[in-house]
Amino acid sequence: MDRLNVICVDDQREVLSAVLQDLESLADWLNIEDCESAAEVLELMDELDAQGEHIAVLVSDHVMPGKTGVELLTEVSQDSRFVETKKILLTGQATHTDTINAINQAGIDQYFEKPWKAQILVEAIRTLTTEYIFDVGLDYSDYHQHLDQNVVLKRLR
């Protein structure tokens, strides 16, 4: 069974902890990683890729020191190793322009404003991970019980 990773990044530890707590229900089939900066994310992604692991979803805050979430997600979207990685921007401070840039440049798949609804975030990650599995051609049978069945049915048609 291929190892699937979800990486969450936020420079505020309390926000990051809340996201991780909300995603606990996914931890029995997804490896949930946390980072506190864009630089830490990029380093982790390099390590996971070198180990042959999959980065299915990247959840990023926008306003962070050093590199914004939009800059991070744009950089990831331009890296050929991670073209299929799904991207979520989770922020309370993005401007309208930031949001447009996130969609146009970073190719984000979902946008959530803080405070988010835990169940909606969990379902978005389940859906995006299901899409990732099909997009990269992984054997979905090992994960079938956890996947978004609507996406599975659509992809099998």
From TrEMBL:
<dbReference type="Pfam" id="PF00072">
    <property type="entry name" value="Response_reg"/>
</dbReference>
<dbReference type="InterPro" id="IPR050595">
    <property type="entry name" value="Bact_response_regulator"/>
</dbReference>
<dbReference type="InterPro" id="IPR011006">
    <property type="entry name" value="CheY-like_superfamily"/>
</dbReference>
<protein>
    <submittedName>
        <fullName>Response regulator</fullName>
    </submittedName>
</protein>
<feature type="domain" description="Response regulatory">
    <location>
        <begin position="5"/>
        <end position="129"/>
    </location>
</feature>
<feature type="modified residue" description="4-aspartylphosphate">
    <location>
        <position position="61"/>
    </location>
</feature>
<keyword id="KW-0597">Phosphoprotein</keyword>
<dbReference type="GO" id="GO:0000160">
    <property type="term" value="P:phosphorelay signal transduction system"/>
</dbReference>
<dbReference type="InterPro" id="IPR001789">
    <property type="entry name" value="Sig_transdc_resp-reg_receiver"/>
</dbReference>
